[in-house]
Amino acid sequence: MDSTSDQIIVTAAKRAQASQDLDAAVAVADKDDFARRGFQGVEQIDRLLADITLRARSSQAYTNVTMRGQASLDYYNPAAQLYVDGLPQDQALFFRQVPIDLDRVEVLYGPQGTLYGRGALGGVINVVTRRPDDQLRGQVEGNVSSLGSGGQALVNLPLVKDALYADVSVGARHQKGQMTDMVTGQRVGDTNSENIRARLRYAPKGGPLDIMASYSHARMASTEEYFVPEAYRAQRLALDMPSHYRLLSDSFGLTAHLDLGFATVSSLTAYQDRTYDRTIYGYYAPETQRSFSQELRLVSPAREGAKIDYVAGLYLEDLRFSYRMPVMTLGNHQTIRTLAAFGELTWHATDRLSITPGLRVSNERTQAQADYASVSYGNRVDATRVLPKLALGYRLDGNTRLYAVASTGFKAGGFTRAAVPTTLAYAYKPQYTRNIEVGLKGNTEDHRVDYSLSAYYIVNTGFQLPVGTVAVQYLENVGTARSRGVDLNLRLRPVDPFTISLSGSLNRSWFSRYDNALTPGLDLTGHKVPYAPSAQLNANIDYRISLPGSLGTLSPHAGVSHNGRIWFTEANAVGQGPYTLVDAGLSWRLNERLGIDLYGDNLTDKTYATYGFDTGGAGLAYQLGRGREFGLRLRAGL
């Protein structure tokens, strides 16, 4: 983790800042946090940090991300954005394997529309890796557990001394299914994934230019889209409805940074090509998506004592999506184009007071065509939006900062992407989010205590919600939803070998006004918003023991994660009650290059649902979280 004078440096706000100086709620989990717990996926970060929930809905290609009560109710538009090394990622890749060269994962809470545009209602997850450099090094790691296995390898090569570097990494992951088909008796739910990534970086030592090109390919094949009737949850018996998919993605990236002295100019280019070859409930329903984005950014230099810091930029995105259901002769093809200009400026009015205004102007245009039988329908929506922000920060003393933020966000309007006959008959409008937040963050002089505390109130107007039966749902604006809550992150180091990490949140998200044109007589005002847990608590304890001689260190650790009640439907008829997961493990480190982790997840073998719906004829059906798992992980550097 990058640090200066014991300060954590984060880049989620599109410029390098000490996390304690950022007038917003931000949390960080580093590579050791993941390794000690045996975590293999980015989605497991919600076992480490507060007020964030990541769960697969139907499949890992459809991720529900809930942050501060902002849930991803639309399958295709998560309520948070995922970035890797500054580049936006396809929404189907939230469940990607943790990169072997992971440095840290930054979570920026609250609506981030000013800097990130549409979709960042709950916040931003920023994955930061170690870039290719001038060291000849290699790294391998492998794990085997009661519920799967996996491994990764990386080699970093300096090609031209002090100028040109490259790295290549490969990985694979097998997740054993835990369901049994109630008719055939076969195990279902297995998931296999592989990935490869190559990067080339030109960064002459002492020079102003840093350019990196990257390519990655990922493949996932799974039978996880089976569903367990309520009566068979304990036995994990699944309905005999053939479901399987193959998810292929290719990603290209090019980032360039030029230090002009008075500012740094950056260009960030990304292209992703995704094919989702899916059969669900026996119906073949393939999807494809192609996305291109280009961002040009101007960032002020990080200089101590500077009166003004700023970031400004232009953004372009072109997204092309296609969904088909051949058996019903249905198709849906959409092109979404975005043009935006944004800026944020921090004025250090005094040594203690900082004022940060920000603004984004964004134009979104959606062109859609739906095919039904031999008839084609076309429609288009076009809108321009203005997203302001204002933050105030005041340093109470050298280690304590008080801040307040008023920020905005939105989800674009458009047309339902699933291919249903009514796709273009119902154009839904944008959802706008307004957020007010206050917080306190700081640490003690000896850094034995680090803390952050925040409280927020969020109002969503034009709330977008899938309505209708599960098979033929479409998006509709159903009124206003509100969210209020508090977050706490606390890290204690009472003595050098002992660390206690606590994170917790309380949240209430509800419909303050419900008006659904499909069911005008149904009033769900006061009901809880789906997929927004009422409470979360994570507690992790680590103790480091120095072994005699040169035998390294031994670290026992334990973790407890509590999740409050969550509803899967807006009628609050299908849900999951509160549950607690217990983890424990033991890590041995001979040195920075060699280590072994023993870990156990969900030690009490708690059965809990992550997704549920009413099937109609078969009653309520669920997808379940993973049961008890014991594993061993080996890491070695060369």
Index terms:
single chain; 638 residues; mainly beta; Maltoporin, Chain A; 22-stranded antiparallel barrel; five-stranded mixed beta sheet; 2 helices; globular; disordered N terminus
SSE map:
Elements: E1 3-4, E2 7-10, E3 17-18, E4 26-30, H1 31-37, E5 52-57, E6 59-67, E7 80-84, E8 87-88, E9 102-109, H2 113-116, E10 123-129, E11 137-145, E12 148-160, E13 164-175, E14 179-181, E15 187-188, E16 191-202, E17 209-222, E18 228-229, E19 237-238, E20 244-259, E21 264-280, E22 283-284, E23 287-299, E24 308-325, E25 330-348, E26 353-372, E27 375-397, E28 400-411, E29 414-415, E30 427-428, E31 431-443, E32 449-461, E33 464-467, E34 474-477, E35 479-495, E36 498-514, E37 535-543, E38 545-546, E39 553-563, E40 566-567, E41 575-576, E42 579-589, E43 594-601, E44 609-614, E45 620-624, E46 629-637
Parallel strand pairs: 7-10, 14-19
Antiparallel strand pairs: 1-2, 2-3, 4-9, 5-6, 7-8, 9-10, 11-12, 11-46, 12-13, 13-16, 14-15, 16-17, 17-20, 18-45, 20-21, 21-22, 21-23, 23-24, 24-25, 25-26, 26-27, 27-28, 28-31, 29-30, 31-32, 32-35, 33-34, 35-36, 36-37, 37-39, 38-39, 39-42, 40-41, 42-43, 43-46, 44-45
